[in-house]
């Protein structure tokens, strides 16, 4: 089974969301459940899925600090919807640590995740935060 990078990002979002609720869950077991809900066979876990989930978890404090700098004074990380925060973490991780993903792609993929897992307000919010971050990164 070969997944596109977009599909891998969706699985990474789902994994990170589940791990946020249950930080002690077994990552590999979770990946298997996401990749093969029927549990018919052990599947090979796409390398990029592991890269995203492990990377976001290992760099979460740093990512959260970066995200916080782009929130307006009235917003803090704990006020964000968990879906939005996880989407932003994935995007900020790709912007900072994944060289073969252009900034435009990271932003567009985050917006697509917001469309799939959140609402229109979230999509606009994610787009605004990432727009500011990319602008600063390019300056």
UniProtKB/TrEMBL annotation:
Alphabetical UniProt keywords: RNA-binding, Transcription, Transcription antitermination, Transcription regulation
Span-the-membrane segments of this chain are none
Looking at the record, the residues that make up the NusB/RsmB/TIM44 domain are 7-134
Tell me the superkingdom of the source: Bacteria
- Say which family it is in: Belongs to the NusB family.
PANTHER family recorded for this chain? ANTITERMINATION NUSB DOMAIN-CONTAINING PROTEIN (PTHR11078:SF3), N UTILIZATION SUBSTANCE PROTEIN B-RELATED (PTHR11078)
Q: What is this protein called?
A: Transcription antitermination protein NusB
